[in-house]
Amino acid sequence: MKAVHAEYVVFDVETTGLNPQQGDRILEIAAVKVKDGEIVDTFESFVNPQRDVPAEAAAVHNITNEMLHDAPVADQVLPDVIKFISGACLVGHNIKFDLDFLCYELSLISRRLDERIPAIDTLKMSKKLLPQLRSHRLGNLAYFLGAQIEETHRALADVKLTVVVLKRLLRMANDQGIDSFQEVYKQFGVVKPNFKIETMEQSFLF
After folding, report:
1. Which of 62, 98, 127, 140 could crosslink 135 through cysteines, CB 3.0-4.6 Å?
2. Burial of 75 by CB count in 10 Å (0-12 exposed, 13-18 middle, 19+ buried)?
3. Mean local confidence (pLDDT), 60-85
4. Between 79 and 204, whose confidence is greater?
């Protein structure tokens, strides 16, 4: 299959901090489904982290405790996220950060991603395809590629920007002979974390 025709779910999380294993939690998650290069579905939700949002985190994404007060908690949101992903390839910019949080939060509710779901990192794509860039941060990459930047550091805005970046990077990869999905995944795929699950009953959501 040509990589440009594959089905992708581009996703992003905003969090209370940098390390889920030290108590940081997801407080916003967004995802879009892309087929044949077009967005066909969108998912977005706040997540009540059941802890205060540190001031330094709120300064980055402008999400406050008041905004999360009536939001659903993770075990209410994450099953819908898994259904949305279905069997699509996951994509994110520096996706390891987002996967660490998603997979750890899933482990807390005795769930995990299907191990067959691939994941691709647009940061790896950028470093390989555009080695001349001094910074491969999403905003800088988008600016270099001519993408319009309206908002950053909110989940859905970053996801939509990553979709534009992904499409342009896939075209660049195609021009360099990296045209099949298998080859794109071989070069730019990442391994999903595998956090321990205490209760294994119903641990997979397909």
Report:
1. 140
2. middle
3. 96
4. 79
The answer to whether the CB of 192 falls within 8 A of the CB of 99 is: yes
The rounded Cα 192 to chain-centroid distance in angstroms is 12
pLDDT tens digits for 6-31?
999 999 999 999 999 999 999 999 99
85 CB neighbour count, 10 Å cutoff: 20
Residue 197's pLDDT band, with cuts at 50, 70 and 90, is confident
Instruction: Name the residue with tokens 């974390």.
Output: 193
| Tokens 């967005």 found at | 39
Q: How far apart are CA 91 and CA 119, in angstroms?
A: 6
The amino acid at 181: F
In whole angstroms, give the CA distance from residue 90 to residue 106. 16
Is 153 known to be catalytic? yes
Could you say which of 5, 61, 69, 153 is catalytic? 153
pTM strictly above 0.90? yes
Distance CA 102, CA 116 (A): 16
